[in-house]
């Protein structure tokens, strides 16, 4: 095995030190939590020599096959804690989540994905039997760095990509919840994540919610399509707020007649597990296909996979002259913003969308407020005295 020292320049001007491992055509890195300060920094030479000396010391241990944790003195806590192998506890924990009916399938998938990344991190550092008592701030910082700079999303094996900042923050949140659970179970004495400074954590990104205006929606209705079912399902969701996961599983049993007309009634939404009932207005009914004698258990829309739907919608958007990044989830955002712009209140719109918190709906209200301000300013400019 070949081991080399590498540095990476940070925004602050300092350089982070890594060890790069090469073996049998594979390469992986270890984050050392050591830094070289800029040459013009006070006492830079002494600090940098000490950091490089420590890096070379760790390199020598790795070449001898010594895990640094094995040579360090026990902090005293690990003797009082049960010796649990991290990956074994993780497998047990997410199995409990899978069996717990209060967690949705989507939540379980998020946990499972996070656990798989942690296993990759341990495998890259050849520590598959890592003990939970050894998890400290250095371990967490190294894991987050691995997620940001080394790990590749393998959903598309032919084109692996870095994870988005939104996904990174989601996995960080999942990691924190799992470590909190470990503390409650008594297999860890504290969660070391809380020792990280703000700059060491993955910041939450303000997600951009693309939505269609009334004019853009009308243009999309007139646009040609390569898949009529996708178009119908998307436009149906623009007037109901359903997610792809819910509309793709929608059966005729979910379409019910009540005194005030037809409604979509879903006992458990795919993402949240919450029940939702959505009245169908005429615009939604226009895109509901004919039942043609279908049985209650048959699907309303015979849909393709989400990625195929998104490709179809992007072509429709181009044909309609829409420059926004349109995906299937754009229909849900469009329903929310158009409903609020038409005078709907936050509470009602939130209930239609199946939100568990009014804060989730408030984001759309902020978007609508920006549109209203622009409109008011245009009126003011129109009546400006020259």
Describe the protein in words.
The chain is mainly alpha-helical and 386 residues long. The chain folds into 3 domains: 1-66; 83-207, Orthogonal Bundle (DNA polymerase, domain 1), CATH 1.10.150.130; 214-382, hpI Integrase, Chain A (Orthogonal Bundle), CATH 1.10.443.10. 48% of the residues lie in helices and 11% in strands. The chain has 15 helices and 6 strands. It has helices at 44-63, 68-71, 77-80, 86-99, 105-124, 137-149, 165-185, 214-222, 228-238, 244-247, 282-286, 306-319, 330-341, 346-353, 358-382, and strands at residues 2-9, 15-23, 26-36, 255-258, 261-266, 276-279. The strands form 2 sheets. The chain has a 3-stranded antiparallel beta sheet. A 3-stranded antiparallel beta sheet has the order 4-5-6. Strand 4 (255-258) and strand 5 (261-266) form a beta hairpin. The protein is elongated and about 75 Å long. The model is unreliable at 69-79 (pLDDT under 50).
């Amino acid at each position: 095995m070949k081991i080399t020292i590498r540095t990476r320049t940070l925004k602050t001007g300092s350089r982070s030190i890594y060890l790069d491992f090469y073996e049998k055509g594979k390469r992986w890195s270890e984050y050392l939590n050591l830094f070289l300060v800029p040459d013009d920094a006070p006492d830079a030479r002494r600090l940098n020599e000490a950091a490089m000396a420590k890096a070379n010391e760790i390199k020598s241990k790795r070449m001898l096959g010594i895990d640094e944790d094995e040579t360090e003195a026990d902090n005293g806590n690990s003797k009082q804690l049960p010796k649990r192998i991290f990956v074994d506890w993780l497998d047990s924990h997410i199995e409990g989540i899978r069996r717990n009916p209060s967690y949705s399938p989507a939540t379980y998938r998020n946990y499972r994905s996070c656990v798989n990344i942690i296993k990759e991190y341990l495998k890259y550092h050849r520590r598959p039997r890592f003990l939970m008592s050894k998890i400290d701030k250095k371990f967490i910082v190294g894991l987050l760095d691995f997620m940001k700079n080394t790990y590749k999303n393998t959903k598309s094996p032919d084109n692996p990509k870095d994870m988005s900042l939104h996904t990174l923050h989601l996995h960080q949140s999942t990691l924190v919840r799992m470590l909190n659970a470990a503390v409650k179970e008594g297999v860890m004495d504290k969660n070391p994540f809380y020792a990280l400074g703000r700059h060491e954590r993955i910041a939450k990104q303000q997600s951009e919610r693309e939505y269609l205006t009334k004019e853009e929606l009308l243009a999309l209705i007139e646009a040609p399509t390569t898949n009529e079912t996708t178009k119908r399902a998307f436009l149906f969701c623009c007037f109901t707020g359903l997610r792809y996961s819910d509309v793709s599983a929608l059966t005729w049993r979910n379409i019910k007649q009540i005194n005030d007309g037809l409604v979509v009634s879903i006992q458990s939404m795919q993402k949240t597990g919450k029940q939702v009932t959505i009245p169908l207005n005429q615009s939604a009914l226009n895109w509901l296909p004919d039942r043609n004698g279908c049985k209650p258990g048959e699907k309303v829309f015979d849909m393709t996979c989400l990625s195929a739907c998104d490709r179809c919608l992007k072509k429709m958007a181009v044909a309609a002259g829409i420059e926004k990044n349109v995906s299937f989830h754009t229909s849900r955002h469009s329903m929310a913003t158009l409903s609020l712009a038409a005078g709907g209140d936050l509470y009602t719109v939130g209930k239609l969308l199946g939100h568990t918190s009014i804060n989730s709906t408030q984001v759309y209200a902020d978007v609508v407020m920006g549109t209203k301000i622009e409109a008011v300013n245009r009126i003011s400019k129109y009546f400006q005295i020259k």
